[in-house]
Amino acid sequence: MSAAIEKSSAPLARAIDLTAKYGERTILDGVSLDIKKGEILCILGGSGCGKTTLLKHYIGLLKPSSGSIEMFGKDWWGQDEPERELAQQKIGVLFQAGALLGSKTLATNVAIPLEMHTNLPDIVIERIVRLKLHQVDLDDAINRLPSELSGGMRKRAALARAIVLDPDLLFCDEPSAGLDPPTSQALDKLLLSLREGLGITIVVVTHEIASIKRIADRIAFLDKGKLIYEGPLQKALDEGVKPVVEFFGAEDKLKGGEKEFKPFKV
Ligand SMILES: Nc1ncnc2c1ncn2[C@@H]1O[C@H](COP(=O)(O)OP(=O)(O)O)[C@@H](O)[C@H]1O
Ligand SMILES: [Mg+2]
């Protein structure tokens, strides 16, 4: 576990007895989960179990049916609009689809949050964009269009945009979906370096076992709307937390057995 995790400090964000519904259908049922400063937390569970829904509540896109979400010590929906807007700017989000503007260069794409939320002069914006593209190892692609990039490069460009306002907290929804294993591994390495280098707290919604093993300080496992486990992955496996063991066991069998747990170092 990283030395960057500040165990004693207050959580950066909290879901408190969160219930989420679409219409009459309950998706999350009394979920309480803290996000600790400096950690990489992986939220996992089967497809359709509510991972994206939980993320949307953390980032303030959805309002809880009951219970609450605290962000940076304040109830999301108890603050006024300007306060919420300020909090939003301290959160980076890497959406599942990436969502870069296809007709714009990477420079323009990455500059969008700066254009929207700051009054910085163009020359400063350009410098920040260059720095962020450097941090994701895309220095040479600054004037390229998304269609001229590989899937892994597009994902890194979207990541540069997600961190361009220097967020305290970064949410990534299935970042390695659709990437081949080496590209996915490189992306994990990048997430680890962002945490180590910039101190960003990172929440990754994922069901990619290899990725979880490489990056997670802690996992939160959702099953049938409930949070059934939160803590280190190894502890869940050692203690035989059944859905977690089954989840990892099934995936291991699928991939021909990857039993050994090796934390991944940058
Ligand atoms: N906007 C929506 N309206 C109605 N149902 C939804 C909506 N978004 C997601 N769902 C349903 O809620 C459940 C949880 O979805 P989601 O949070 O996207 O799961 P996950 O990210 O774990 O795959 C799924 O059954 C999904 O079909
Ligand atoms: Mg999802």
Descriptive overview:
The structure is a single chain. By secondary structure, the chain is an alpha/beta fold. It has two domains: 1-90 and 168-266, Rossmann fold, CATH 3.40.50.300; 99-166, no CATH class. Helix content is 38%, strand content 23%. The protein is built from nine helices and ten strands. A six-stranded mixed β-sheet has the order 6-7-8-3-9-10, with helices on both faces. Strands 2-1-4-5 form a four-stranded antiparallel β-sheet, covered by helices on one side. β7, α6 and β8 (201-205) form a beta-alpha-beta unit. The relative contact order is 0.16. Bound molecules: adenosine-5'-diphosphate (ADP) and magnesium ion. Magnesium ion is lined by residues 51-52, 173.
Task: Give the helices and strands, then pairings.
Layout: E1 13-22, E2 25-35, E3 40-44, H1 51-58, E4 66-71, E5 74-75, H2 81-89, E6 91-94, H3 106-117, H4 122-135, H5 151-162, E7 169-173, H6 181-198, E8 201-205, H7 209-215, E9 218-223, E10 226-231, H8 233-239, H9 242-254
Parallel strand pairs: 3-8, 3-9, 6-7, 7-8
Antiparallel strand pairs: 1-2, 1-4, 4-5, 9-10
Helix pairs in contact: 3-4, 3-5, 4-5, 6-7
Bound molecules: adenosine-5'-diphosphate (ADP) and magnesium ion.
